Automatic annotation (TrEMBL):
Function: Component of the Mediator complex, a coactivator involved in the regulated transcription of nearly all RNA polymerase II-dependent genes. Mediator functions as a bridge to convey information from gene-specific regulatory proteins to the basal RNA polymerase II transcription machinery. Mediator is recruited to promoters by direct interactions with regulatory proteins and serves as a scaffold for the assembly of a functional preinitiation complex with RNA polymerase II and the general transcription factors.
Keywords, in A-Z order: Activator, Nucleus, Transcription, Transcription regulation
Cell location: Nucleus
Gene Ontology terms, MF aspect: transcription coregulator activity
UniProt KW Transcription regulation keyword: yes
GO biological process, one term: regulation of transcription by RNA polymerase II
Annotated GO CC locations: core mediator complex; mediator complex
Keyword match Phosphoprotein: no
Protein name: Mediator of RNA polymerase II transcription subunit 17
Main location (coarse class): nucleus
Membership in a protein family: Belongs to the Mediator complex subunit 17 family.
Gene: MED17
InterPro entries, per database record: Mediator_Med17
Length: 606
């Protein structure tokens, strides 16, 4: 075994054998070197010049001690091994020992039972402590910056947000921290300053307690107001519900918030009007009261239509001009409740009925154009005869001038020949309007009964093809009055100057309703039927019986005349109704034709 000393070197002589995982600190860049120094030195807070000198001196002493121990060990081994070694050999051993002592070895020497760490380990541990201290310093600096930014946010919020961390902005409201500056006189004693600081601290606490008390009091007031608003809101909802209104849940078309709606229309009563009568009970966020807001047909937007009502007027013709001689009255029947919200619902229901009435009247007027009925968007004109008109108007309601709508008195005297007073004509107009409304209610009832029946093909056909009988029976009955008056005049003219004839005349009006129900609504939808009975006796005691039935069809306005002529040879046969001969039985639709026919029959009988 060789007596030469053992040397350990971590550097490789050849570049191709160099360890790729070892980095040369001399080749590191500044951005890589600084983080390593920060990790090795940890904290720089307590570094002083004297401490650095002591650290360098300790490192040198430790390094020299290690070199001396190694050199002494080598000499002892050499002396024991070969006493005759020359001086040159000893010099070489010391030189090699000193050269190898400059290398940093990661080995541990055990001496007297203690572990002695090498310089590299000491350096690594100190470097780790340094990195921890630097990290702690950065964290403390960041917290200090957040504190200053939060304190500054009450004065300069935009500047504070730029320097405040996102974590602090997320969990702490800006401007929530504030500070005041305390100015004390330097000439005062320290005790006085301390006393003043104590008083200032107590003042701050008192102020903080006052602010907290004020905040709690304001919160309490807010809660009381919210409770009061909710109580007022639900009391008004209960008031509407107690008025037997149908409520339903919906969404506010403006804010899409949950709300409660009310059905004020006549859909459940049998109406098929396009406006279903839906409204929103919108809550006022300031007072808690509800506001009645009508909706459009689809219910997706707020309705903006104007309130209108139906008015009936009678006009008479004087000197080629028409003058109003009668007018119906606007009756305010919806303002009977002491609660405003109920009156608003009843008001909307009242005008919805008026809109439905004029809509149904306009539908019927369109099929009566050929019968002297003129229909426009806002008016229906019915020509009674050549001397008069009946106008049905859809008037816009003026709430400001409501008294003018209620005033139905004639503002001027009627001219001569008007035939009736202003009061009677006004009453007639009011009765016509009442008739229209009652007939529309009857149509609602009819539709409701159809909906309650078992659905069959017949009931479905009736539901889709049923139309209200409002204007047609009205016009038909007026025309029927004109028809029977005209027929009476024709008969009188035919027999007035016939001295060779003995005549008896009998007239029966609405004979088809005599045996029917006394229900006036049932009579209103029945086709009118009146009968003229005329018996003639000539000088030969022959008897001629003329029977004329004046009626109409389903349209109520057409003229239908049924003529029946019977002849008896004697009066006794007529009285016993035997041996009668049916001379003629025919139907006419024109007065001129029946006039000519009757004239020929009477002349032939004479």
């Amino acid at each position: 075994m060789s007596n030469e000393p053992l040397y350990i070197d971590l550097d490789f002589i050849e570049d191709k054998k160099k360890d790729p995982f070892l980095q040369d600190e001399d080749d590191l860049e500044l951005k890589e070197l600084i983080p390593r120094i920060l990790i090795e030195r940890q904290s720089f807070l307590n570094i002083t010049e004297k401490a650095l000198e002591n650290e360098i001196g300790n490192s040198k002493v430790a390094l020299l001690g290690t070199n001396n121990q190694e050199s002494k060990g080598d000499v002892d081994i050499d002396v024991d091994a070969d006493v005759d070694a020359d001086v040159d050999a000893d010099v070489d051993v010391d030189a090699n020992a000193n050269a190898n002592a400059n290398e940093v070895l990661e080995i541990e020497d055990f001496k007297d039972g203690t572990v002695v760490k090498s310089t590299q380990e000491i350096f690594n541990s100190q470097k780790l402590d340094l990195s921890k201290n630097v990290s702690s310093a950065l964290n403390e600096t960041s917290l200090a910056l957040d504190f200053v930014s939060l304190l500054l946010s009450s004065v300069k919020p935009s500047l504070a947000k730029n320097t405040m961390s996102s974590h602090l902005q997320k969990f702490v409201k800006p401007s929530s921290l504030n500070a005041d500056r305390l100015i004390t006189e330097e000439s005062e004693a320290a005790t006085k300053d301390n006393a003043k600081c104590v008083k200032v601290g107590q003042g701050w606490k008192t102020e903080a307690l006052a602010k907290i008390t004020k905040s709690f009091r304001e919160s309490s007031e807010d809660l009381k107001q919210q409770v009061s608003k909710e109580r007022r809101y639900w009391n008004m909802i209960n008031l509407v519900l107690s008025n037997n209104e149908a409520l339903f849940r919906m969404r506010d078309p403006v804010s899409n918030a949950r709300a409660i709606g009310v059905k004020y229309g006549y859909g459940d009563s049998g109406s098929d009007f396009q406006d279903k009568g839906l409204a929103l009970l919108r809550k006022n966020t300031q007072t808690g009261e509800i506001k009645f807001v009508p909706l459009a047909t689809a219910g997706s937007k707020v309705s903006t239509k104007q309130f209108k009502y139906v008015r009936v007027r009678i006009l008479a013709k004087f000197d080629e001009d028409y003058m109003v001689i009668g007018q119906s009255r606007f009756q305010n029947t919806y303002a009977n409740s002491p609660h405003g919200i109920i009156n608003e619902i009843e008001k909307a229901r009242f005008f919805l009925f008026e809109d439905d009435l004029f809509y149904q009247l306009s539908r019927e007027a369109k099929i009566l154009i050929s019968y002297n009925v003129i229909a426009t968007a806002e008016k229906i004109s019915i020509e009674i005869d050549n001397q008069g008109l009946i106008e049905i108007e859809h008037i816009r309601y003026d709430e400001v001038n409501e008294e003018e709508s209620d005033d139905y008195r004639q503002p001027y005297p009627l001219p001569e020949g008007a035939g009736s007073s202003s009061f009677s004509n006004n009453k007639k107009c009011q009765l016509i309007l009442t008739y229209f409304k009652l007939m529309l209610v009857c149509f609602y009832q009819y539709n409701l009964k159809l909906k309650q029946k078992v659905p069959t093909s017949l009931t479905k056909w009736k539901q889709s093809n049923s139309h209200p009988l409002i204007l047609r029976p009205f016009v038909g009955n007026m025309r029927h009055e004109l028809f029977i008056n005209t027929m009476r005049k024709i008969l009188k003219e035919l027999i007035i100057d016939k001295k060779d004839l003995e005549s008896k005349f009998k007239f029966s009006k609405y004979v088809n309703l005599m045996e029917r129900s006394n229900n006036p609504f049932q009579k209103a939808i029945e086709k009118p039927k009146s009968v003229f009975d005329l018996s003639l006796q000539n000088t030969s005691s022959h008897v001629l019986i003329i029977k004329i039935v004046v009626t109409t069809n389903e349209l109520f306005v057409d003229l239908i005349l049924h003529l029946t002529v019977l002849r008896y040879d004697t009066v006794e046969d007529y009285q016993t109704n035997v041996n009668g001969v049916n001379v003629l039985q025919i139907e006419f639709n024109d007065f001129d034709e029946i006039r000519n026919c009757l004239d020929w029959q009477i002349q032939d009988f004479i």
